[in-house]
Structure formats: C-alpha cells, structure tokens
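Our consortium's second objective concerns turning raw sequence data into structural hypotheses that experimental partners can test. To show how far this objective has progressed, the report includes one record in full. It was chosen at random from the queue rather than selected for favorable results. The single chain below, 250 residues long, was entered without modification.
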Amino acid sequence: MSRISGAPTLSMEHVYGLTLRVARWRVGAGETPLLFLNGIGADIAAAAPLLAQLHDREVWTLDMPGVGGSPDALLPYGAPTMAAILIEIADRFGHKTIDIAGFSWGGAMAQQVAVQFPGRIRRMVLMATTPAVSAPGIGWAALLDDDMLASGLKLPTATPLGLAYQSMAMAGWTSAAMLPTLKSIPTLVLMGEQDGVVPACHGQLIAELIDGALLEVVQGSHMFPFTHAAKIAGRISDFLDAPAGQQAAA
C-alpha cells in the first residue's frame, strides 16, 4: 500500500536523458489538470497531504532529479530545460492545457514554464515564491521554519548531487522582465504573513508585474501550504474553479 497520501498512480518517465518519478491523483478527473511543483529537495510524499485534498480534478507532480524516487541527473540542467521536460510529460499525458501551481523553488519553476509556454497555461497559483532567486539555496531555511518545527513535518533529504543541481538550475534566475507578458494568465499569489524565508514583499512584486494578479497574504510562515493544507487546498480550488473572466476572491 502506498505511503503517499491519496495513493496516487506512480510512473517513471524518461525524458531528455532524465528519469523522473511522477505521481498522478484522480487521473482523468475534471476539465483541466493541475501540475504542482514543489520546493527544493522536497519529494512527492511531502506534497501529497496538500495535493490529495484538491478534489474533483487531476493533479500531478514529480520528484526532481536526485529527489525521492528520481535518480540523480548525469549532468546539470537549467530552468528552461526543466520547463521543456514538464511540458513533454504533459504531452504524454494528453494535457494540451494545464493549470500550474508552485511552492518556493517550484513557484519560480512554475513562472519559467508560464513564460516559456504561455499558450499551454490556463491559470497559475504561486506560493511563497519570488521573481528573482539571488541565493541558490533558497528554500532550505524552511527546515527551521516556525510552522515546520511546530507541526513536526519533516522534509526528505535530496542526494547531495540532486540538491546541487536543483540549486544551480535557479541560481541567479529571474522572471521579472517577462512577467508583464503573462497578463492573460489569471494568477493567484499566496504568501505567508510570518514567512522569514521568502517575505511577502516578493509576492507583492510578482503581483505588480502581472497585471490583474491577485495577492493574498495568508496565515502561517514559509510552509503554510502544508501546515495549513486544507485551507490552502480549498483556496486553490476556488480560484481554479472560478468562471472564466472571474477570479474568486478569498
């Protein structure tokens, strides 16, 4: 029996020389599937308590190289390459249009996917993230996050090479110049009011750069999507389910 919440369907996808473990919940449910991208070093199991509560839609995520069930990459990879890999996997699943959500490091990668493949993204949710990664290790301070310590949650450890390559992929990365081009993609930005890893001002900048984006500062610190999973899952669902032309307010 799977140790991963919600018992998703697991597969190994071989793309561009990488082997990646992918998890899919509620395969085929709903109209538009949701791709979720996790924080640095965190695997499918860490995201599962949140993703299992996103009902009535297919949700999929994956372990980055050297994390969880995905073996190390032989060579470093960049953010544009990983974005292309994610869209290739979406193609294999028959997903021509997807919603995308990302947390921390994964929120930066979600922005990269949207900038690179804007015609493939219907709506976007960005959580505890930034439009510019100045420090390659952003996200690991979450291990000392107040909510993290209080909840008893534990993030698995990536391999040293996996962590190094994942850090390198986003070192010096920025989406700031391209975010204004995403005004046609409805975007929800969620930031933790006590987040000391990625303060809410980062989310405010994203919302200012994407015309029409919603910014909401929510209860919790950096790990709020997981320590307040039921509430955040509900908010994500409300946003993704809002009628076209409307962005559901909190």
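The partners drew two points from this record. The two ends are 37 Å apart (CA to CA). DSSP finds eight helices and eight strands in the chain. Both points have been shared with the crystallography group to help prioritize constructs.
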